[in-house]
Amino acid sequence: MLFPEMPVYKNLELGAYVRRKDRSFVEKMKQEVYGLFPIIDERKKQAAGTLSGANSRCWRLAGHSCQALNC
Fold first, then answer.
1. Closest of 39, 45, 35 to residue 65, by C-alpha
2. Of 4, 11, 12, 31, which one's alpha carbon is 20 to 30 angstroms from that of 24?
3. pLDDT truncated to tens, each residue of the chain (71 aa)?
4. Does residue 62 sit in helix, strand or coil?
5. What pTM, to 2 d.p., does this model score?
6. At a CB cut-off of 8 Å and minimum separation 6, what does 12 contact?
7. How far, rounded to the nearest angstrom, does the alpha carbon of residue 60 sit from its chain's CA centroid?
8. Separation CA 57–CA 53 (nearest Å)
9. Cα atoms found within 13 Å of the Cα of residue 8, Cβ hemisphere only
């Protein structure tokens, strides 16, 4: 799920909400996503709802990758 008015990085942090007390895990997860999808890193302060179609697909892939990595 994407919260369109929140920045991309806040959406990533919400994706790790259940592990929120483990700050090192959350930071590691964000860095892994940014490493796999550099465009997400470039747009991390942008409102998620303003991502282009291609960037939105990267965002969805990042979410699926994170699940596969057991994030």
1. 35
2. 4
3. 678 899 988 888 887 777 778 888 888 888 888 998 898 899 999 998 888 888 878 777 776 666 655 55
4. helix
5. 0.73
6. 29, 30, 33, 44, 62
7. 9
8. 6
9. 23
